[in-house]
Amino acid sequence: MRRMHLLLMRAVPGVASDLGLVNAFDQYSKHFQYRELSPEDFPESAETNRYVELCPTKETVNESFDASIELSSVEVMDRSAIPDITHTTVTRLLVRVDRNLPLAQSLLEQGFHIVGRIGARRRLCAANIEPHFPVESFVSGPVAPAIVLGRANVNLLAQARALGGSGIPVYCVLTRGEPAVIARSSRYVREVFDCRKGNDEDISSIVRQIARESGCRPIVFTGGDLDIGLLARIWPSISGVASVVSAPDKCRYFNDKKIQIETASTAGIRVPESRVVDSVQALGCLAELSFPVICKPLELARKGAFRGKILVAENEEELRVRLEPVLETGKASILLQEYVPGGIDHLLFALVTCDDNGQVRCSVTGRKLEDNTKGGMGTGETLRDPELDQQVAKTFPAFGVGGVLGVEFKRHSGTGELFYIESNFRPENIHSVNEAAGVNLQLAAYLQAIGLPTLYEPLPQRQATWMDLSLVFLARLKQRGGKSLWPNTRGVVADALWAKGDLRPGFVWYALKITSLVRRSFSHLIKRRH
Fold first, then answer.
1. Which structural domains are found in the chain, ordered by start?
2. What pLDDT, in 10s, does the model give residues 180-237?
3. pTM for this one?
4. Alpha-carbon distance 172 to 191, whole Å?
């Protein structure tokens, strides 16, 4: 493993400015170099914390050994040289380590948690902290692989990058959708199993195969609502060999938006006036609602002929024209909700990792800035909102579901009140915003699943912007002026497809899309000529 700096953190009582760190380490000056880092590089240190670099001196680490040969910790470093800082009030510590250095492990035993890393030859500053670290250095035995069930889309790529960036083997099992080459092009994906034409038993067999070959229980994640139902169906056949971050049956139960709303309302969370219809006759409830009304499927499995994600009807006539053909098939269940006034920037989101009781362990919150023309988010940014934090803290314990989850609220433009909109019981498509914000929710959920929930403790979120560049450009072209092609961004920028160090999926994605577009255009031209 290349040399790097791990950022360790410990929450301790007392005033940070009373640190006696240098004096505490005087007896170790022969073995370690330590220096307080500039508040200019770590602005937070000027207010509440002190950042200190700690690294072994040349005399401490035996420079004569070949770094390519595995040596025991004792051979590399005398453990008695490790500083004991149990009684100091250090809260932020940058430690330069390599695979054979027991320093980081000793500090973890003294109550520190890993926050992230700063790569080799990179400047020591807050902007360079990455929410990753080499998991294999802190677990005994083989590293449990992660399995992502879903489509080869931006959701799956974000999950693979979040896990693979910390050295976790990632296997992708494709259940539908895009070509497998997109997933295979990512440097963070160990292997791809294309089951788009397979059945439940095929997928169960693959999970058992990965468990058998890896020698440990893989951790299973889902990428979409349909995959939640799939995992719930196969769970009885794989529960003996695999683990999950979220209880499959609970996730499938709460995927029903009617149940979500009823549960949230019972917990004292404000929800819009809502009705559920599954027939033309049920539209008689429209007299009880005020327009505009938002319409959306209760869940994808009961979408029927409903097109898109949402429909906004300005009046009853418009709603009936759009929904009656869908309801006549008898295959759709539609949620109707009174529209909460406010623009798209009034839509707030929270992405979280919860324990098995639904208690929030870490989170990233923000707001939407632009639609992506398909009912999802085109651009959005991180934003801290105390009232949103309070509502999120009430929402997930009401569901009692663990793992990587998401929730959306909307702030009423007139009253300022927050209204619950919906939750997702799997990682969101905007998942890559978490890493840009310095919080690796996927890694936190993984560590919880393997029994190491306290090993990782992220810093508070930083300013970040997420965007799906291709859909943003498409929306700009449809608007024909009025906005620049490049969206406004603040802080660290994360794109849905493009990621530093993993560019191939972006090139493959666009190559496939352009090829498809050319084929359709050529086919259309041929038809016109005939």
1. 4-130 (no CATH), 273-338 (3.30.1490.20), 344-491 (3.30.470.20)
2. 999 999 999 999 999 999 999 999 999 999 999 999 999 999 999 999 999 999 999 9
3. 0.88
4. 6
